[in-house]
Amino acid sequence: MNAKQPNPQLTQTYIEADLDRVLATANDSILPSSGFAESLMTAVHREALAPAPLAFPWKRALPGMIGAVAAAVLLIAAIVSFLRSAPAPGSAHPLAQIALSSSPTSSALTALFTNHATGRGTGTLWLAISLVISLSCLSLCRRLVSPR
Questions:
Q1: Is the pLDDT at 102 greater than 90, yes or no?
Q2: What mean pLDDT is reported for the chain?
């Protein structure tokens, strides 16, 4: 009966000896092609001589970023303020209340912003605001992308 021999202890010296044996083969079958080292070094020299990439113009972009953050903060503050002062259900829209006078245009505005059946706002104002925002974003994108 032939019992299996246990694996040798994996010590640092055994691992190093095994690694050296595998890496130190006399017949390396993989050799670099002729001129490989020379082409590699010319590529390295070419990259070393290339100019550094342009830095991002943070000084020019910073005012725009600050303005965008300030606009976002003001928009959030306006939305919170508007929601806190929202009218009770069943009352007229705040912009319709502004237009309450005897002129014919004010009655048209009142009809535009309120629904006569329910007395609640129709959302026409929000639709108009969303269209203006969408069109302004579209025109900004077209201006940025179009060739000059």
A1: no
A2: 76
Helix (H, G, I), strand (E, B), or coil: what is residue 106? helix
Q: Enumerate residues 6+ apart whose C-beta is below 8 A from 68.
A: none
Three-class DSSP category at 87 = coil
- Residue written as token pair 């009655």: 107
Three-state DSSP at 121 gives strand
Of 120, 98, 123, give the one whose Cα is nearest residue 109. 98
pLDDT in tens, 57-85: 888 899 999 999 999 999 998 888 888 77
Tokens of 53: 């990439």
- Listed in sequence order, the residues at least 6 apart from 91 whose beta carbon sits closer than 8 Å to its beta carbon are 119
B/e letters for 55-78, b = 16+ CB within 10 Å, e = fewer, are eeeeeeeeeeeeeeeeeeeeeeee
The pTM is what? 0.32
SS3 state at 53: coil
Give me 8's structure tokens.
């040798």
Cα 60 to Cα 70: distance, rounded to the nearest angstrom: 17
Q: In the structure encoding, which two tokens stand for residue 69, read together?
A: 């953050």
Q: Which distant-in-sequence residues (6+ apart) come within 8 Å of 21 by Cβ?
A: none
> In whole angstroms, what separates CA 12 from the centre of its chain?
49
